[in-house]
Design a protein that fits this description.
CATH architecture of the largest domain: 3-Layer(aba) Sandwich
Strand content: 25-35%
CATH topology of the largest domain: Protein Transport Mog1p, Chain A
CATH class of the largest domain: Alpha Beta
Order of helices and strands: HEEHHEEHEEEEHEEEHEEEH
Largest sheet: 8 strands, antiparallel
Radius of gyration: 23 Å
Distance between the termini: 51 Å
Number of strands: 14
Number of domains: 2
């Protein structure tokens, strides 16, 4: 009995010591439905990071920068020779999916509640659902085109069966003055600085002026301090200053004045010197504290 207990304990320790196996890629083919009045035009095509350029040459780099892992494509043709193409991109996390979606979505568009968010144009319906970015294209659909695209999109959302919510960090951005649908998630080189890491941002307009607010989630307080210390080093007036939690303004030679707040593992701020930015950043801090 004791030997059996020791063997069980040893197996448990080894299991915790070894790295976990990588998660298997999702069964993307299962996400494509059969559509009444349509037939599949060929099988499901799949693309991975090493050959994505074969399908979207010229745009692949942007997808790869947003954590792209797998693409599946299914073509459909109707009895009257109309065509539909469904592309489902898997980006690993909902934040990464939002990153690529937000880099392509228009400021002015016909937005709709599909998945986490989507928009429709003539012959095009794009949306995100959980960690998936879905792009639907229709050709020669005529007056029924929008309905066909929506039906296909709704069916794919049900098949994904994921969490259809936008990243929680977006709720911290004040509504007053925010430019509709300007929210973005930048995964690297934010404001031209590779040391800043990823950041959520949104554009604002007040009194005829435009500015940007943002929030970053660091890996911890030490990581947040390191980012700010690097940022301070670009401002000659703050050279050698030791950053502390609280408020800070950096005169960035590339972006101008940047008002910042640091608390724990979060940094939030605004590009510009207006008092309206300071007021909105206080509201943002209150929302983050919740």
């Amino acid at each position: 009995m004791k030997a059996r207990s020791r063997n069980f304990l040893l197996a448990a320790l080894l299991a915790t010591a070894l790295p976990l196996a990588a998660a298997a890629p999702p069964d993307m083919a299962a996400l494509f439905p059969d559509l009444q009045g349509w037939t599949r035009d060929g099988g499901v095509l799949t693309f991975r990071p090493d050959n994505l350029y074969e399908h979207i040459n010229g745009a692949a780099e942007n997808f790869l920068a947003c954590g792209f892992e797998l693409l599946a494509v299914q073509n459909y043709v109707s009895e009257s020779r109309q065509a539909l193409t469904a592309e489902i991109y898997f980006h690993g996390t909902a934040e990464n999916a939002f990153a690529i979606y937000s880099s392509e979505k228009p400021l002015q568009g016909d937005y709709l509640a599909l998945g986490s968010e989507g928009y429709i144009e003539e012959g095009v319906l794009n949306f995100i659902s959980d960690a998936y970015y879905v792009k639907l294209n229709g050709f020669d659909l005529g007056a029924a085109g929008a309905g066909a695209l929506r039906h296909l999109g709704e069916t794919i959302v049900r098949a994904i069966n994921g969490r259809n919510v936008l990243p929680p960090a977006l709720a911290a951005f004040p509504a007053r003055g925010k430019v509709a649908h300007s929210e973005r998630y930048i995964l690297g080189n934010f404001l031209g600085h590779d040391f800043l890491g990823a950041a959520f941002s949104a554009d604002y307009a007040a009194d005829g002026k435009r500015f940007k607010l943002f929030v970053m989630q660091a890996k911890g307080a030490d990581d947040a301090r390191a980012r700010l210390q690097r940022w301070v080093s670009v401002d000659k007036g703050l050279a050698g200053r030791d950053v502390r939690p609280g408020e800070l303004t950096i005169n960035d030679p590339y972006n101008g004045p940047v008002q910042l707040h640091w608390q724990g593992d979060r940094i939030w701020g605004g590009v510009g010197s207006d008092q309206e930015i300071a007021t909105l950043l206080k509201e943002m801090g209150d929302k983050l504290a919740q």
